[in-house]
Structures are given as C-alpha cells and as structure tokens.
Amino acid sequence: MGIVLPALPFTETVPRGSRSANGLVQLHGRAPVTAFLKIYHFLLVTILIKVLTDEFAAVAAGSRGAEHWFIVAVNTGLMVKSDSL
C-alpha cells in the first residue's frame, strides 16, 4: 500500500508568468514582442561576451608579466648558484 496524498485545490490552471506574457502579446501583438525578445537576447549575449573577453584578456596580460618576473627570479637564482661553485 502506498502513501496517498490529498488532492490540492487548484484555482487556476495557467501559471502567473504566462498570464502576464499573454497580456503583453495581446497588448502589442506577437511580432513586435518576438522582435523585442530576439533583439534583447542578441544584445545581452553580445554584452556578456564582450565583458568576459575583456576580463580574460586582462587576466592573461597580468599573468604574462608575473610569469616573466618568475622566470627572471629563477634564472637569477640559477646564476647565483652556479657562481658560488
């Protein structure tokens, strides 16, 4: 015998978000809303790609400088070690 849960009384069958979306489509029409969403999505993705690309470029540029000074330090240590012999 399994557990039987009581049925929940649903007063509405359409979720709240789709009611407001349907109202937006009814107010402006399907084509303008679709065009707005496509343009908004394109701009959002473009801005995110631009910001992330700039961030990664800045991190890469900073790491090159740090790597250079690390190699200089290692080479200096090797030269000092070989001179003492």
What is the strand and helix layout of this fold?
Layout: H1 16-28, H2 30-84
Helix pairs in contact: 1-2
Structure, described:
- It comes from Tuber melanosporum (strain Mel28).
- It is a single chain.
- The chain is mainly alpha-helical.
- It has a domain at 33-83.
- Helix content is 80%, strand content 0%.
Brief overview, please?
The protein is built from two helices and no strands.
Give the tags.
85 residues; mainly alpha; (Perigord truffle) hypothetical protein; TRP_calcium_channel; YVC1_C
* Whole-angstrom Rg: 31 Å
Query: What's the average pLDDT?
Result: 77
By DSSP (H or I, 4+ residues per run), the number of helices equals: 2
* Beta-strand share of residues: under 5%
Largest sheet: none
The helix content is over 70%
Q: What class, by secondary structure content?
A: mainly alpha
Name the helix and strand elements from N-terminus to C-terminus, one letter apiece.
Answer: HH
Inertia-based shape = elongated
Low-confidence segments:
none
**Quick one: how many beta strands?**
0
Domain Calcium channel YVC1-like C-terminal transmembrane: 29-85
InterPro entries: TRP_calcium_channel (IPR052971), YVC1_C (IPR056336)
Pfam family, one: YVC1_C
Protein name: (Perigord truffle) hypothetical protein
